[in-house]
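Researcher: Quick sanity check before group meeting.
Model: Go ahead. Protein one:
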Amino acid sequence: MPGYALPGKALMTFAAALLALAPMYAGAQSRDNYYRAEIVIVERIVDPANVQERMASRVPESADDITGMMKVVGVDGSVQSTLNLAPNSDLRLRSAAQRLENSGRYRVLMTAGWYQSFPPDYDGEPLRVAVGDWLADAGHREVEGHITIDRQRYLHVGVNLNHWQPAAASISPVQNDERIDNNAAETGDSDAFDTPVEGDGSTGSLANGGDINPDNAPAALAAKAELLTWIRETRRMRSEEVHFIDSPTIGVLVFFRRVED
């Protein structure tokens, strides 16, 4: 009836019912944007002498001021993460990582998966990565940097990783005698997957970023470790596809699966 007002008690009951339904509605809305994110970092087993990039004089900006952590391995092997990491048994990329390692051409450095809501206009914080061998003289891991996940209309993953070697390293040769250039991430390596791999080759090129002032980094780091290659790329992701972002010596597998139930 027009102009009819609920009695006070009935109005309070109606309001309480709405409040009770609100979390259910919000949960349904957020579930529409709920994903399992998976990231694997691998190292190509190649002789650094065959890498044509000359990056030893470059000193990237430090990621030490980044508080979010995807996976950071300390000097004692302890692992830190600000994510609630899922068991490896849950991950779609687990079998792909195993096939890469079994090929003898790659070494798996990190596997990470977690469940998270990525709503439209999500502006993710950078997440630190520190994996691979411990470089004792330099005081840090072989592969360090950060990875960022954003969502505008689509999910985007920004990879900013540095691959270091000791300044006077002598790494044993490997079976591949070919010289590796900035196009070394050819689709031949995508045979390891049984799902489409989207990638346009290496991102470790010197052209991807200007020289970074060495004054921005500790002198000890510059003196005791040298940059072998790096990745600087942001890629648009498609759900349910394996994406491969790489340089001549390291690669990043990314997979998102929408969770609807």
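Researcher: Fine. The other one?
Model: Protein two, sequence then structure:
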Amino acid sequence: MSERATSQVALDEVTSLCRRLRLKYVREQLEDVVHTAQAQRWEPTEVLRVLLSAEAEGRDRSTIEVKRRRAHFPAGKTLDTWVPSRSSIPASTQQALATLEWVARHENLAIAGPSGTGKSHWLEALGQKAIEQGLSVAWFSVEDLGALVRRHRVDDSVSKAFGALASVSLAVVDDIGLLPVSADAAEGLYRLVDAAYEKRSVAISSNLHPSGLDQLMDKTIASALVDRLLHHAHVIVTEGESVRLADATSGRGVKPLDE
């Protein structure tokens, strides 16, 4: 058997072993790396280093993508598409929040202000960065939480369900107050905040300041909710014109039609 044929047999055997050991990214890079190693006369340890680095990097990318899908982000907004100068949030506050040190300290974040002032975009951008840093994130509307309460009330597993929800590093509840809050949704929001209290971080956005949540739900629940939410929380109030409206009126909201 020729040297080339012998080499191909060995390569096929290594590929088979990679499948057996589930080394997907080693298998994908194997042939190219072997040919490069032969041409450049790499040491065996360098070949191993390159292949194992490819496997580690590939698994990291895959983990991030899985976490993104599980988070259920609404729009794919990231810090790359965030324009700091268009936000009324002070630049120093943006920088401090973007470090995510507050998540490591199990602190909360509440952003209140008019529609269109970047609340959802900012929260999603922070959530995306959290996942890139290896953390886990879950994104909800307040009615998602209400539906969860109704689903688990049937078998009396509501507490267990919300305990599992609060196992993520950061739970985000977006756009509280745009629509009426049902009793189930209010209960769900309270249960989430209570389950995460001093163990995980919760971030919310609302067109109302948290102190005004009693306008949306039973005052007893609102009081207990706000007490736990704000005990270790950063409260940010946005203001100004809607960014979406500004884009629309300036013609930046759509791509111009060809004439």
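Researcher: One line on it for the slide.
Model: The CA atoms of residues 183 and 218 lie 8 Å apart.
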